[in-house]
Amino acid sequence: MVSTDWRTAGPAVAPTARLELLPLRVEHAEEMAVVLADPRLHEYIGGEPDDLERLRSRYRRMTAGSPRPAEVWLNWVIRLRDEDRLVGTVQATVVDRIAEIAWVVGVPWQGRGIAREAVRALADRLTEGPVDTLVAHIHPDHHASAAVARAAGLAPTDRWHDGEIRWERRLDS
Question: What crossing angle do the helices spanning 143-151 and 114-127 adopt, rounded to 10°?
């Protein structure tokens, strides 16, 4: 069990060869609004990019934490060190020892293994904490996200949620 109280401070994630995962702050919204502005990022999840004010508002809610006492929100931005810039996000919602994870990398940085590296680091860190299962929901046609999940040790299940396949990694086996 990790000594960090995940309700007050998200667990630190060790830097990887190229990346730092920094706890999300409202101040990240300005740079992230540019990273997340491409409508192609919504191809599989629907919706449209947030403008700067909506993103700031969303980041305020996210950094305030879940209003549900039994649920913990953990959110990081991905910083690519050699470019000294933010390039995406990773997140986990933890309830009853299950961490539902998600990620997004801006279009200009896709195809470089950044999501794979960040999600592996996140998964490794979560396995050190009060988590027994990692879960991700992935659109059946989103092959890049499936590859990221597989690299983090998740496998597809026969369960579906809102048109997406539930991927899972049990940490006790």
Answer: 40
